[in-house]
Design a protein that fits this description.
Keywords: Membrane, Transmembrane, Transmembrane helix. InterPro entries: VanZ-like. It comes from Desulfobacter latus. The protein has five helices and two strands. It is mainly α and 105 residues long. It has one domain. The protein has a two-stranded antiparallel ribbon with strand order 1-2. α2 packs across α3 and α3 packs antiparallel against α4. It is elongated.
């Protein structure tokens, strides 16, 4: 079971939480390229923490702040991957050169 397995003194399910949320900002920006990365990060962080917060209200689930941190860490890494993807794809150019490409940092 994932809650019994440890990697570097962390439960493996915390790593899984991060890996599940890592592609969310990249996929969002690929699908909706007009959104600035900071807005995507804020919405995704609210989603990640909110999903864990809903578990606090459910009697058969348990809130775990480490799960929320794992979700958030995955989203932050995903946002970093998206920034790298934009940099490699378009470069850090002037706004008139990148207009319409979704490079609003």
């Amino acid at each position: 079971m994932l809650t019994d397995m440890f990697v570097f003194e962390l439960r493996l399910d915390y790593l899984v939480h991060g890996l599940v949320f890592l592609p969310v900002p990249v996929l969002w920006c690929m699908g909706f390229s007009g959104h600035p990365i900071w807005a995507v990060v804020l919405v995704c962080l609210a989603l990640a923490v909110g999903l864990e917060g809903v578990q606090y209200l459910l009697p058969w689930r348990a809130w775990n702040v480490n799960d929320a941190l794992g979700n958030s860490a995955g989203l932050i890494l995903g946002a970093g991957c998206e920034m790298i993807r934009r940099w490699v794809g378009y470069g850090f150019l002037t706004t008139e050169d990148t207009e319409g490409h979704g490079n609003e940092f």
